[in-house]
Amino acid sequence: MVTDTSSGTGPSALDSPTSTVDRRRPARRLARRRVPAPLALPAAVALAFLVLPLVGLFVRAPWPTLPQRLTEPEVLAALRLSLVAATLATAVCLVLGVPLAWLLARVDFPGRRLARALVTVPLVLPPVVGGLALLLLLGRRGIIGQWLDKWFDATIPFTTSAVVIAEAFVAMPFLVIAVEGALRGVDDRYEEAAATLGASRWTTFRRVTLPLVAPGIAAGSVLCWARALGEFGATITFAGNFPGRTQTMPLSVYLLLETDPPAAIVLSLVLLAVSVAILVALREKWIGSPA
Amino acid sequence: MTTVDNPNSPPPAADRAASAVGLRAHLVVERTAFRLDIDLTVAPGEVVALLGPNGAGKTTALRALAGLTPLTDGRIDLDGTCLDDAAGTFVPPERRGVGVVFQDYLLFPHLSALENVAFGPRCRGASRTQARAIAHEWLARVGLADVAGRRPRQLSGGQAQRVALARALALRPALLLLDEPLAALDARTRLDTRAELHRHLADHPGATLVVTHDPLDAFVLADRLVIIENGRVVQEGDAATVTARPRTDYVARLVGLNLYRGRADGHTVALPTGMALTTADTVHGDAFVAFPPAAVALHSDPLQGSPRNTWSATVTGVTRHGDNIRVQLAGGPGEASADITPAAAAALRLEPGQQLWAAVKATETRAYPAG
Fold first, then answer.
1. Do the interacting molecules here have an ipTM over 0.90?
2. CA angle centred on A272, ends A83 and A121, rounded to 5°
3. How far apart are CA A188 and CA A192, in angstroms?
4. Poorest-confidence range of A151-155, B7-11, B367-371?
């Protein structure tokens, strides 16, 4: 302490450890400055507004009969259909959406801006309108549907395929936007390097681009799958509400609310659990990713 | 060739190359407010350095040769095959047989060192086993057999540079391009890597073009230098010629010489500033005069009766330069640098704005034609 010349002279130099703490205090006080009431109150209400309904779901859930209800055939059927349809819809979105995202991100074609805008339309379109539009296109009398009916004797509406199509329609933008963003984030000079090594554009895509955007594709797929799982409006319009065939979980929840409210709550809890699981998974992906 | 360096030296390779092997290129790439227009010839086995300041068009030239930027005009021929004639022919990069070592290497981060090197052979149709065997061989050749399984992230800068070199060489390219190959390395690694790179480039049977802004890299690695400024070739020749006879201020600075241009008449060169420098060389007409900063002596009093060029100079800057003091001067022939010992500097009590007398012996200057 005696040799301490930097922190001044006299007693203040002798008790420098305490003075260090003192020096930090103003900063802490700054951090604890009062939050103004006009901001604090609405913020608290907003938080409560978002959380309390979910709390209600937990409070009113028929906990004692939960396991039994979860294993009822109708519930299981709806659950299975939902999982299968959402997974198939995600697969469709991946197969079609990743190439579309690549095109939007990497190829400078005329009308690219328009194409990019059109991709986002299902995002803002009311799902019911989407369902109706699909019906007009692919319905038995639809623009394409009538030919499918006539030539292949194939009817799409009110089948499980219709569920997958409706979900893919609504969920695809989530995937395309996520993957396009990831593609734009990847240094395209890696693709140039691949080209100088003799890789065709297709090989480059497969062996360089795809692995580099894999985290983005994973995140996009999860978002896409979650959106498909919760799809209601387009599904009920285009695919109808047939148990075991087109009745997914959200549709069951809506119907059970009339006949068996506790069962609706149970299904809702399942959907909530899935959503939270996805949120956690994405969090880890975003925080843990090296990019 | 926009300039012919020295009438006494053999003509540049462009005029010599009757056989259509190696690289022969006339590169023209136009951008807004920039035009690259250079001729380049690189014989098989030859290493040419494309040297120039930032923004001179070095990287543009490299990208045009690799097929990553199409030519606006001109033509690229490699071993007799036209790669780009700016009109009909454009061979895409994947079919050019041109290997590139990028400045930041661009090793694929999701592949191991071995897989990075095997990538090229695999694209060229080698089986997985063959490609891995080739990659093993090249990694061994650059001394990295023991890190074959590592990802680029786990490699040091010097190792990554060697993997990038192995990756480009594994395709046995007819033309190898290196973009600032040592720029990303720290000084210590640079020294070792430069020497090793020189060995590998000397072994490479194809043509090699090294793009760099570092004269030392160019001198060590290349057989011949092509110096470009503002998209044009300003000088070319071997290291000895370029260092002895710079033709622009940029080159003079690179090689550490004071350079002036004027009209020569025997042993004197009249400069635009009004001063005439006396040289030991005999030249006539448009000429350059060059002398090293160490040849400049500084005195506080005028000298008399010596066979020296002397002028009154104003000190504009004083900096450390290695073990010596570098003094920037104005006046006389123009801007000049003088290197003096710290002792001499102390005796002169140097400070900016000070008036001094500068002197250079005629025998320490070199004069050569500029035309």
1. no
2. 70
3. 7
4. B7-11
Do B63 and B136 belong to one domain? yes
A187 touches chain B (CB under 8 A): yes
Q: Are residues B177 and B264 in the same domain?
A: no
Residue B112 sits at φ, ψ, to 5 deg, of -70, 170
Using an 8 Å Cβ cutoff, are B27 and B37 in contact? yes
Structure tokens at A84: 């299968």
CA distance B133 to A9: 72
Residue B365 CB neighbours (<10 A): 21
- Same domain, yes or no: B282 and B194: no
Q: How near does any CA of chain B get to the CA of A189, in Å?
A: 7
- Annotated domain spans of chain A: 82-247
Rounded to two decimals, the pTM is 0.77
CB B229 within 8 A of CB B248: yes
Summarised one tens digit per residue, pLDDT across range B325-363 is 999 999 889 899 999 998 888 888 888 888 999 999 888
Residue A289 C-alpha, separation from nearest chain B C-alpha, in angstroms: 13
Task: Supply the DSSP symbol for B171.
Answer: T
Kindly state the average pLDDT of the residues A231-242: 92
Task: Say which CATH architecture domain A82-247 belongs to.
Answer: Orthogonal Bundle (1.10)
Task: Give the residue among B266, B318, B268 at the shortest CA–CA distance from B293.
Answer: B318
B109:A212 CB<8 A? yes
Could you give the CA distance from residue B175 to residue B99 in angstroms, rounded to a whole number?
6
CB distance B94–A211 less than 8 Å? no
Q: Cite the DSSP H helix spans in B52-141.
A: 58-66, 113-123, 128-141
Would you state the pLDDT for residue A32? 67
Residues B201 and B338 in one domain: no
Angle between helices B157-169 and B113-123 (to 10 degrees): 20
Instruction: Please write the tens of the pLDDT for every residue from B285-307.
Output: 999 999 999 999 898 888 776 66
Give CA–CA dist B336/B152, Å, rounded.
47
A66 and A266 Cβ atoms separated by less than 8 Å: yes
Per-residue burial over B81-108, b = 16 or more CB atoms within 10 Å of its CB, e = otherwise: eebbebeeeebebbebbbbbbbbebbbb
